[in-house]
Each structure stands twice: as structure tokens, then as C-alpha cells.
Write a structure and sequence with these properties.
disordered C terminus, Tetracycline Repressor, domain 2, HTH_TetR, mainly alpha
Length: 242
């Protein structure tokens, strides 16, 4: 067991962002169903796992650490998850689900002129709101196994596909936009934003992730527009002034 599993100085998740800490299960008889009890146990265990990974790193966390931090028993852990990988996958899936739904919701509520900045800000603000979760799953999960990396690729590809489809829809209203860009262009955008955020999270101090948005938005917005044609200047002898 690592010394940090009981450490009260380990940063806590931000309540209501990606996870919400449920109340402790009452002792003795109660009116909760088995499903409700299981949901409470899973949530508390996922939160404990996430906080420990953010503090100690992906490879430093074991079942005993999660059990100790969540103040639950090993029996409760194995009632909720088959093993530590299952707990990790469930927590990571929660992160991806909330992040993707936040971006899509913001995207579909926007207009043409604010498409790119709105989507990037939705992503960065979600991470900024809970830096513990962001560090756990943006940074430390790069050391996870093939299954988690595959899930990350699937999630990012899904976001890129949604962005492509919404871009094509918006391009019908804006003649300046290039309507036939392939999914790979949007996937490159998604990876660029993700890497910039990860680098900021990996630096010292408390990052300001939203500061990443303005230069990225300017570059991305321009890259999604049609190539500008222009008339070549007439040929002939140059005029010398002065």
C-alpha cells in the first residue's frame, strides 16, 4: 500500500464535474436496492482510483490503495469490479463520456461564426474545471494498456467524425467553409488540441488551459475555410519609385 492512499493532502476531484461522491452507505438495514448499493460502491471506488492515479501515476496504484482511500473493503471492491483494470476502464470511460457529451452539446448549440472556439473552449473548460481528473486521464493514462489506448482512439475518432458532420452542415450556410474535408483533418485538430492540453497539464504549477484556445482557434478556423483565389498581378516592367 502506498503512503498516499490515506494522505488527506491528495487533491480531490471537483464534485459534479466528472464524478460525484455519494454519501456513505448506512450501517444496518436500509431501503436501498442492490443496484443502488452497487452504484454507490462503484462511484466511490472510481473516485479513489482517479485521485490516486493523478497523485502517484498509473503504475503506482493497486487494489489495496483504492480500497484504503475509498474506506471500503476488498469484498466491496470485487463486488463492484472484477479487477483493477476493470475499475480503471470504468473510470476512464466516465471521463470520455462526459468530455464528449460536453463538446457535442456545446457544438450543437452554437452558430457558424463561433463553431471552432466554442468546441475548443468546451473541451478545455471541462478539463480546467477538474484538473485532478484531467491529469489522471490526459497524462497518466498514456501509460495504460492497449485496451485503454484503443478506447481513447475510438473516442477521439468519434469526436472527429461529429466535428466533420457538423462542419458539413454549417458549410451549407457559410460559403467560405470548405465542405468536403476528410475526417482525418478533424482528427488532426482533435489530437493537436489534446496534446497542447496534455503538455500544459504536465508543466509546473496550475495551468490555464483556456489560454490555449485563441491561437489554436485562429489556426483551425483558417484551415477549415476554402482556399482563397486571387488574380495574379499583370506582368510587365516594374515601376521604380523615387
Amino acid at each position: 500500500m502506498t503512503a498516499t492512499s490515506h494522505n488527506p493532502d491528495i487533491p480531490r476531484i471537483t464534485e459534479g464535474a466528472f464524478f460525484t461522491t455519494p454519501p456513505r452507505l448506512p450501517r444496518g438495514p436500509h431501503g436501498m436496492t442492490r443496484d443502488e448499493v452497487a452504484a454507490v460502491q462503484r462511484e466511490r471506488l472510481m473516485i479513489a482510483y482517479t485521485e490516486l492515479v493523478a497523485a502517484d501515476g498509473y503504475h503506482s496504484v493497486g487494489v489495496r490503495d483504492v480500497v484504503a482511500r475509498s474506506s471500503m473493503s476488498r469484498t466491496a471492491f470485487y463486488d463492484a469490479f472484477d479487477n483493477l483494470d476493470a475499475c480503471a476502464d470504468a473510470a476512464y470511460q466516465r471521463f470520455i463520456t462526459v468530455l464528449v457529451s460536453t463538446m457535442i452539446e456545446r457544438l450543437r448549440a452554437t452558430d457558424v461564426s463561433h463553431e471552432v472556439p466554442t468546441v475548443i473552449l468546451a473541451y478545455l473548460e471541462a478539463l480546467q474545471y477538474d484538473l485532478v481528473v484531467a491529469r489522471a486521464f490526459q497524462l497518466e493514462f498514456d501509460a495504460a494498456g492497449p485496451a485503454s489506448r484503443s478506447r481513447r482512439r475510438e473516442a477521439l475518432t468519434f469526436v472527429a467524425t461529429v466535428l466533420r458532420d457538423e462542419h458539413r452542415r454549417i458549410a451549407e450556410q457559410d460559403d467560405d467553409l470548405e465542405p468536403d474535408l476528410p475526417t482525418s483533418v478533424f482528427l488532426a485538430v482533435v489530437y493537436a488540441v489534446r496534446q497542447m492540453a496534455s503538455d500544459a497539464l504536465d508543466g509546473p504549477g496550475t495551468p490555464d488551459l483556456t489560454a490555449i484556445e485563441p491561437p489554436l482557434s485562429a489556426w483551425i478556423t483558417q484551415s477549415l475555410r476554402r482556399a482563397q483565389s486571387y488574380d495574379a498581378p499583370p506582368s510587365g516592367p516594374a515601376t521604380v519609385v523615387g
